[in-house]
Amino acid sequence: MKIFSAAQIREADAFTIAHEPISSSGLMERAAGKCAAWLEDHYSPVHPVYIFCGKGNNGGDGLVIARLLLDHGYTVRTGILQYSPKASADQELKLQALQEHYSSTVYDIGDISDFPALPANAIIIDAIFGTGMSRPIEGWTAGIIHLINDQRQKHVIISVDMPSGLMADESNRHTAVVQAHYTLSFEFYKLAFLLRENAPYAGEVHILPIGLHPDYITQTPARYHLSDREIMRTIYRPRDPFAHKGTYGHALLIAGSYGKMGAAILSARACLRAGAGLLSCHVPQCGYDIMQISEPCAMCITDEDPRYNTHFHQDITNTNYKAIGIGPGLDTQPGTAKSFEHLLSGWQRPMVIDADALNLISVYPFLLARIPAGSILTPHPKEFERLFGPSANDTARLDLLSKQAVSLQIYIILKGRYTAIACPDGAVYFNNTGNPGMATGGSGDVLTGILTGLLSQDYSPKAAVLLGVWLHGYAGDLAAAHLSQEAMTATDIISWLGKAFQEGI
User: Fold this and answer.
1) 159 known member of a binding site
2) 259 plus 195 within the same structural domain
3) How far is CA 271 from CA 266, 288, 453, in A?
4) What range does the domain containing 35 cover?
5) Is 133 known to sit in a ligand binding site?
6) What are the coiled-coil residue ranges (predicted)?
7) According to the model, what pLDDT value does residue 427 have?
8) Which residue of 100, 121, 408, 468 has the smallest Cβ count within 10 Å?
9) How far apart are CA 117 and CA 67, in angstroms?
10) Is 59 annotated as a binding residue?
11) pTM of whole model > 0.90?
12) Same domain, residue pair 35 and 146
């Protein structure tokens, strides 16, 4: 799914109006009708509804919602914020339609003293400002926003399209922003919904299709995308019935050190579960028995060092490897750094770089320039900051993420609630699978194994990244559904990976 900017969404509206054709008023009826239907599905008329409308088209949406709910027996009070003497043409049209039949339900709000006393079980609908916001809300209008937020513990707050005060394309930097429990948005995710800093405002987001013209959607490029099942189905390749283990590649994992062999085991198991035909693991001597006993499906190569991986570059003489994953439990010994430098100089194919391998790069930044094109880096936010420096906010960090991926011609996975995947062509994909239960030790090691396993099967780096992150999150969702978010561990993600292949694609 493409994530369009606020300007592009306005263009999509205009294109639909011109080419469907449909009037702007008709499109507003369609959008508001979807909201009213959602409200009716989730709340019965026993709940009184209080709608706060602005003077623009977002307010027009609210006025239509009010009329439709009144038609279906709901008790609705609609307040019009009089922050401007002018209203949009469609807002005026919808206000007139509401007042023709339900004039007694509409009142003006001229300052905070007009804020109503809300009865028990009331629902607040915020339709004050939509995607057109370009400056902070000030004065008594900001006061109304604060009064709405004060009701959050007692009443459900639902925003139409955008929480009022939140900018669609950036991190929030203002104080007067509605803190919604739910946001009913139209057709596309907005970038703002996917940024960690905006989490207190949008609440649970529901995207309602309103039939914007498909030609605009397909023909208009977007910088940001949301990974979805449809994309995964175009990427996934079913297995050839005449295939053999050599068909699906020989992967090499360089992982583990004294006290950290668990990370190597997790990564190895995930690599095999992701479908790698063959797997070799380069581990220190102390990890030989552990690996052979814990994961008998993997072959094991031991380093010259008893406790650490310090001579793994010698193993790349095996040109049969289709992919290399490096980092889980690796440690950051000087000998490890030297061997990593040799590996980067001698290996020209894409590789997966995670954990301590990323930490080594942050200590020795000249290694960045030696990473093979098409490689995949998997930092969490702190690792990303150590690699590329701090950012003022989430929007600035996204820009830096994309800039570095393009400059280095690599894929960078910035882990988070909506993991961001930056591509060498400048595109950024947000992944929407996964849950907080995956915030547990070893989850990243599992992802490294999955990515390495997919890369070894001749998936392109982009396909491996999108599919791997999706499957990793979906397996976590399945595990959480059966075990709870609290009780799940990284091993459970691996256990549910097979089901993720079956159900997630």
Assistant:
1) no
2) no
3) 9, 18, 4
4) 2-221
5) yes
6) none
7) 98
8) 100
9) 21
10) yes
11) yes
12) yes
